[in-house]
Amino acid sequence: MWDESAFVVEKMLDYLYTGDYSEAPSDKLQKKLGNSTIYGFQLHAQLFTIGDKYCIPLLCEIATTKYFDKAQNPFNSSDYFESIPDIFFSPLNHNNTLKMLAARIMKDTVGSHLNNPLVRSKYDDVAAQSPGFVKEVLDICLTSHILTWTCDNCDHFDTGKIRMDCGNRGKKKLYPFSKYKVSWSSRS
């Protein structure tokens, strides 16, 4: 455990003794560490990693739940991005649950904020460091979305391949592609 921070080890011991952990450091440890403690996503990611490393599956489960809860409002994208290297550069990787969750949070929550230059910059930095993260996000995007279309003439809605004529007008007349509304719709 020499490669783990004292704070993360303290939180793991809290879990082992009480079945849970908090984000706040003990007073004694706070005095030693000063301002170098970690919070939020990064803490939960490191506790997941230490739980995975030492085969403590219930610690992994609690850390995953707390990581997910942290993604609910208010969301801190800087804190989130700081956790990604801890997840995707884990020394041992018995459990992929947190990787999939981090990628899903990127798709569902952070993706809509990429037009913000600060969020985009953080994402670009993490994407350059962690190709495994980018692959996981891409895998989720490719498997959880389908292309849908709606015919402007009759409001017929369908999924799958885009057809130029939905067949409900009785004639096989092709219309310009601009007549159709094309959108992405989530399956999950």
Based on the model shown, name its key terms:
2 domains; 188 residues; globular; 3 strands; disordered C terminus; 8 helices; mainly alpha
Word description of this protein:
It is a single chain. This protein has 188 residues and is mainly alpha-helical. The chain folds into two domains: 6-99, no CATH class; 146-186. It has helices at 6-18, 27-33, 40-53, 57-70, 77-88, 97-110, 117-129, 131-144; strands at residues 145-151, 157-159, 180-186. The chain has a three-stranded antiparallel beta sheet. A hairpin with a 5-residue loop joins strand 1 and strand 2 (157-159). Helix 6 (97-110) crosses helix 8. It is globular.
Strand order of the largest sheet: 2-1-3
What is the radius of gyration? 22 Å
Please state the average pLDDT score: 77
Tally of individual domains:
2
The oligomeric status of these chains comes to: single chain
Biggest sheet, in brief?
3 strands, antiparallel
Structural class: mainly alpha
Number of strands: 3
Question: What is the general shape?
Answer: globular
Helix content, binned percent:
40-55%
List SSEs in N-to-C order.
HHHHHHHHEEE
Task: Determine the number of helices (DSSP H or I, runs of at least 4 residues).
Answer: 8
State the end-to-end distance. 39 Å
Strand content: 5-15%
Low-pLDDT stretches: 159-166, 169-188
Protein name: BTB domain-containing protein
